[in-house]
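Note to self: the last two entries modelled the partners one at a time, which told us nothing about the interface. This time every component goes in together.
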Amino acid sequence: MTVAAAPSPVRHSARSWSGVPVLLAILAGLFLLHIAVGAKALPLGTVVDAFFAFDSKDFDHVIVFNLRLPRAVIAVVVGATLALAGALMQGVTRNPLADPALLGLTSGAAFAVVIATSVYGLATMALLPWIAMAGSLGAAAIVYIIARLVPGGATPLSMTLAGASVSAFLGAVISAIHLLNQETFENLRVWLTGSLAGRDVTMLYYVGPPMLVALLAGILLAPRVTVLAMGDDVAQGLGVRTGPLKAQLLAVVVVLTAGAVALAGPLGFIGLVIPHVVRLYVGSDYRWIVPYAALAGAAYLLGVDIIARVAIPPREISTGIITAMIGAPLFVHLVRRRTR
Amino acid sequence: MSLRTLFALAGLALTLAIPAFAQETRNVTAANGTFDIPVAPQRIVALNDQIIALPLYELGASVVGSAGRVDAEGKTFMRGGMDTLGIDYANTDIQYVGQFNALNVEAIAALQPDLIIGGTYTDLAVVDQLQSIAPTLVIDNGALGLIETLRTLADVSGQSGNFEARYQSYQANIERTKSFIGDTAAISATTTFMFPEADDLWVYRANLGAITQVLSDLGFAQPAAVAALNATQASWSAELIQQLDADFIFGFYRQQPDATPETIRAAYEKFAPGWCAALTACQNGQFVVLPGPTFGSTMTGLELALELVENNVAGRPFTPFVEAP
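The predicted structure of the combined assembly is written out below.
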């Protein structure tokens, strides 16, 4: 398992630089497309007017400015952070299967939010990100402790198995809470599938600042992840203090994951698939993987959300369902491609 | 199922078989086959509270057990029971037998029922287990529609006379309301459903209990996009809410404890900001939120829904919806 994520010689620098503007252009294009198209077909002129001559009495303007724009912004933030968190986790654990969902962080955040809102009746949005972070951190600690306790210690395999077990356990507890408190749980039904519909953009005020700090920290720490991905012994030999570095990276991943879950619910596959796609282009240098993953993750979620909104009008499909439907076969394809 | 449970169920079935022999039986056909059931069942267990237990109880059937729900404090209750008929486990002899999707078979067996009634939502494996306790009928309420579901429940519980008398009265009231309104086909109405969290908006063409039955019986029209739905219901994109505009738009409150008229109205606004300004029905005060029993599955729900629709449509002047050119 360590082979797939082990760094190969860095040989992509020039090529890597060239990809950044291309990705930025794709991201900008998808952002504009996300705003221009939707369940209701609007003339391009109306879309432009919504920005430059907004009329709150014109519902078409409201659709563009109050429905599509906040949703696009949330898609960018969530897609970028989940992909970046996945990339960092794969590097730190030297495990190509690592992602916030598989290692229990997403379930931990979702579990904490479910407990806080449906059992304790929490209604204060400002606390939600912190509760999600506590849940993520708790789940990460449990996964790590379980992995440490098994013979052989915290290997990529034991971490993956412990993460899958903790995720399954927390999922079962969430189902049990659902069964015991069906009435109030109706409120979380859609959120738990991972959805960008009807999200409250004011949540960004609370989660945005810590997520931005974590995003920048992740990019700054990325060069050292490349060294860490070579193994603890090699990293220590190169003067990297692996313990503090891992703690910093865990904090970054927890903040990013918890923020994303607070914004859109537990969306799967983005943190798993996007770093693998990016590696095909930039190799195994995390200086490039991390920013590329952020840009590609944002673009991917924008694209997926466009499909979720326009596929079967008048309905909208939960974005989390589409990320899974596309992400699963895409991941299988990537695995087959790497093993050839 | 453990060997011990199997023996317990077999023993109970044997015990129950003795009084069953003493009862006069008849043949009925349900969605899951043809069964011999008592002509006048004395101990009925309902595997759903809202859809089965409440209508049976209001028709006078002898319900001894019902599936129910559990609230945030861990207290069991029948959904819509207090709201619609003023009944719950605490003030009736009805015993809690689990939730409709997590039934307690041993609790059902302990009640010694002579008839068990479930729906297509009941786990078929559980239905098979229950057949060893008492004939267990599966009623397909989705396919039958509300009136035929009520008629079937009345029939199998030996309460047809009560149902037909009440249905006749309901039909007479429908005719009365029609006479007040006039050309009901010229009036359009949309039935929507929203939870306080405002995650999604559901639109119903049919099968939302009493309210859609009443609107259909009155002969009201629906917006083209709703009438064109293949399914009886669909979640609706916020961008397309103007397709729902009609003379009247109905929503609901009291579907759960925090669903008040205020939180539900706020949820519509959160789901689609500016939605009221975008819909002439809402601008004209013709977006009406109705209480929970009006989407329930009882005769009481039908009568209440009819009264409220009559009051809102015939009991005051309203501004007809004119489709934008």
